[in-house]
Amino acid sequence: MNEGIKSAYERLQVISQDDTKRREYDARMKALRDYNQGMLEAEERGIERGRTEGRAEGSNNRAFDIAKNMLSAGFDMGTIAKMTNLREDQIKTLRN
What is the pTM for the complete model shown? Predict the structure, then answer.
């Protein structure tokens, strides 16, 4: 039998015979699972937040591009604001 497996098996036998050690082992394993689950959830939240921010940024960039094109085509500020959901002060900065 592999030395690592043999050592683990012997340790398991000791733990399974001693209630205190088994509770300590169970508590340690629960803490590890809780930590890993917390890290996984945090990573998933971070990924989703990044996607949301990326979509918003991409959408905003498209709105600015459309507003620039509309300005060069001679559309008035109010129409551009309605079509792009940009504020008039944002559109004014594009004009300059």
Answer: 0.48
